[in-house]
Amino acid sequence: MSSPTHAALMDGVYRRQKHIYDATRKYFLLGRDPMIQQLDVPPGGAVLELGCGTGRNLVLANRHYPDARFYGLDISAEMLQSAEKAAARAGFRPHLARADAATFNAGELFGRASFDRIFISYALSMIPAWEETIEHALGHLPPGGSLHIVDFGQQERLPAWFRSSLFDWIARFHVNPREKLFEFIDEKARNSGAVSRCNPLFRGYAWHAIVQMA
Question: How big is the CA angle at 125 (ends 131 and 162), to the nearest 5 degrees?
Answer without folding.
Answer: 135
